[in-house]
Design a protein that fits this description.
The strands form five sheets. Strands 1, 3, 4, 6, 8, 9 and 11 form a seven-stranded mixed sheet that branches. A five-stranded mixed sheet has the order 15-16-14-19-20, sandwiched between helices. Helix 4 packs across helix 10, helix 6 runs parallel beside helix 8 and helix 12 crosses helix 13. The chain is elongated, with a radius of gyration of 46 Å. It has 15 helices and 20 strands. It is of the alpha+beta class.
């Protein structure tokens, strides 16, 4: 009898190891393979026990990823990797559930341990061999051999262990694309949340705040599900990784209550009262949720949130029956999508459905639809409220118009007695308009006289002062050079003394005509600065151009002869030039002072010449 038992035990042991009928085979074209065919057991207590004990009964898992539901015990797993290549190869073992507390991975070759890796979200990011948000283990497979993989997985919120073996380059390419896609989706969801908060700052509608906070919390929840929370938010506090997901789910469920009140405006009812009581109880429990183990928090979350969502859906349906508006229907879709995700979580967590890489795609799709419907709901509500305000304003305008009609009827009775007075007022008004028009014409004439020199017909000093300020501002704004040329008739006093003031006036007029003939651009202006002194304003003109114009004017005047009363009078002028890009609009006198200094220098050093500021040394 004892011999029969021994033979039976040996047969079970042989069946256990022979059952590795489908090892992961590494070939030349190997990129990745999901590991669904493996054996697992809760009986081993150590690696040696899992490797050698013959009394341990192993269970077989085939065809789908291992999902043991809310199991709290540690599970041991076995599978084989067969390398058919003639050289050592490197692979990455990916645990596609980043929410596993502790994973011990042992690789054995010919019963010898060749590698041991500890990983899980119970370890800080800096203690991982591969610092990634995913759980990755580096493996080395010897050439033309089989290695046995033994894993011990412990998790406080259930055992869901989808495994994939990757060729490193293929994993990097796959993970890069996946992270880019998920990053873009999470970023888009965050941008929608921020947009809602920005719209609140403009509209002061509180439903934008609730929608924005729910959207941002949804984006954070997706980031934690992908493992980004541990990597980017709290890499040294791994204990928060799993508890944050149920907390964020409960926060979203709580925030639906004020949002529903803002969008649906539900009427008081027994169902609504029960809903408020349950939601308030959920909010109170959230304050002490940190004190409970993770699996209790997970069970509480998966139990209470679908109940709360059921009440939300029921009360929203009641509101839709009373007021079937598009914001109400969109909110109902939001609640349905969120409930679908919660039901999916329940099915996956309790082990009724395999937990694999497609889970994230489904959750992302539902949450993205939830976010889109949520933003549509609040935007449509804002548009409807704005339309109602417009209609109310139009109604008010129509009422005011009706009141105006009644008022006009009353005013008609008074119109007859006021006709004579209005007629007199119209006459006086017409006379006043005629007088004002005449005053405007005289003012324009005076303004023209005030800006023109009576003798020469060119602009006067007053006009030049205003024009100079305008051009200085333009020079500073456009960063263009502004040039000023100051000109003075040489020995003009001797002309007055010799020929008289009348001939002197004719000389001044001749000089102004010659200067005007040399100004070709519409913006160039010449003005009589005072007495026999003139000033030329040249916008957007460099120093060389201003000096060239001044020199042409000087040469033309020097070569000309003014004939007055049978007297041929020849004379010359001196000129000073200053060019600069304006930087201080409060000191326009700098231009005239610098140009005047250059003119004074030309007078003192021989006359009949053009000098440019700064003065020659």
């Amino acid at each position: 009898m004892a011999c029969a038992k021994a033979l039976l035990s040996l047969l079970m042991l042989l069946c256990t190891f022979c059952s590795f009928a489908s090892p992961v085979i590494i070939k030349h074209d190997f990129n990745s393979q999901d590991i669904n065919n493996l054996h697992y057991s809760f009986e081993p207590t150590s690696l040696l026990d899992a490797q050698q004990s013959s009394h341990i009964q192993w269970q077989k898992n085939t065809g789908k990823p291992l999902n043991l539901g809310l199991e709290q015990r540690s599970v041991w797993m076995k599978f084989k990797i067969k390398n058919t290549l003639s050289y050592d190869t490197e692979q990455l073992l990916s645990l596609n559930n980043p929410l596993l507390n502790d994973v011990q991975v042992y690789q054995l070759h010919n019963s010898q341990l060749i590698s041991h890796t500890q990983i899980g979200d119970g370890y800080p990011l800096n203690k991982r061999a591969i610092k990634s948000e995913s759980l990755l283990v580096k493996l080395i497979s010897p050439a033309n051999s089989e290695t046995i993989m033994i894993m011990r997985v412990t998790n406080s919120s259930g055992l869901r262990v989808p495994l994939t073996l990757w060729q490193p380059e293929a994993y990097l390419a796959h993970k890069g694309k996946l992270n880019l896609l998920y990053g873009l989706l999470i970023g888009f969801i965050f941008s929608l949340g921020v947009s809602c908060l920005v719209l609140y700052s403009f509209s002061r509608k509180r439903y934008f705040v609730y929608a924005g906070l729910i959207t941002l919390t949804l984006g954070s929840l997706l980031a934690y599900i992908c493992g980004f929370g541990l990597k980017y938010i709290h890499p040294n506090l791994p204990v928060l990784q799993q508890v944050m997901i149920p907390i964020l789910l409960m926060l979203i469920a709580l925030m639906f209550l004020p949002l529903q009140k803002q969008i649906c405006h539900p009427k008081p009812s027994f169902l609504l009262t029960v809903q408020k009581v349950i939601v308030n109880a959920l909010g109170v429990s959230l304050l002490s949720i940190w004190l409970f183990p993770t699996h209790i928090v997970t069970l509480f979350c998966l139990t209470t949130i679908p109940i709360v969502l059921g009440f939300y859906i029921a009360t929203t349906l009641m509101c839709i029956r009373l007021s079937p508006s598009k914001p109400n229907k969109a909110l109902l879709l939001v609640l349905v999508f969120f409930l679908v995700v919660m039901l999916y979580f329940i099915v996956a967590v309790i082990g009724l459905y395999a937990f694999d890489r497609s889970t994230l795609a489904f959750v992302f799709t539902c949450f993205f639809s939830c976010t889109f419907c949520l933003c549509y709901s609040v935007m449509k509500l804002f548009i409807l409220q704005r339309d109602e305000e417009v209609i109310a304003q139009q109604t008010l305008i129509a009422e005011n118009a009706a009141q105006d009609t009644l008022l006009k009827e009353r005013l008609k009775l008074q119109e007859k007695t006021r006709q004579e007075l209005e007629s007199q007022v119209d006459e006086r008004t017409f006379e006043l308009q005629v007088t004002l028009r005449e005053l405007e014409e005289k003012n324009r004439s005076l303004e023209l006289l005030n800006t023109e020199d009576a003798l020469t017909g060119i602009k006067n000093r007053r006009f030049f002062d205003k024009k100079l300020i305008m051009e200085i501002r333009r020079s500073r704004r456009e960063q263009t050079p502004l040039s000023i040329v100051m000109l003075d008739i040489d020995r003009f006093k001797s002309i007055n003394d010799t020929y008289g003031h009348i001939i002197g006036d004719q000389v001044i007029k001749a000089v102004s005509d010659l200067i005007k003939d040399h100004l070709k651009r519409p913006l160039d202006e010449v003005a009589r600065y005072g007495g026999e002194e003139f000033v030329v304003l040249l916008p957007n003109t460099p120093s060389e151009g201003a000096q060239d114009i001044a020199e042409k004017i000087r040469a033309a005047i020097s070569a000309s002869t003014v004939t007055v009363a049978n007297n041929d009078i020849q004379f010359t002028i001196s000129a000073g030039v200053y060019t600069s890009i304006a930087d201080d609009v409060s000191s326009p006198q700098i231009f005239t002072e610098c140009a005047d200094k250059a003119l004074y220098y030309a007078k003192q050093h021989g006359r009949n010449q053009v000098i440019t500021f700064p003065l020659p040394q």
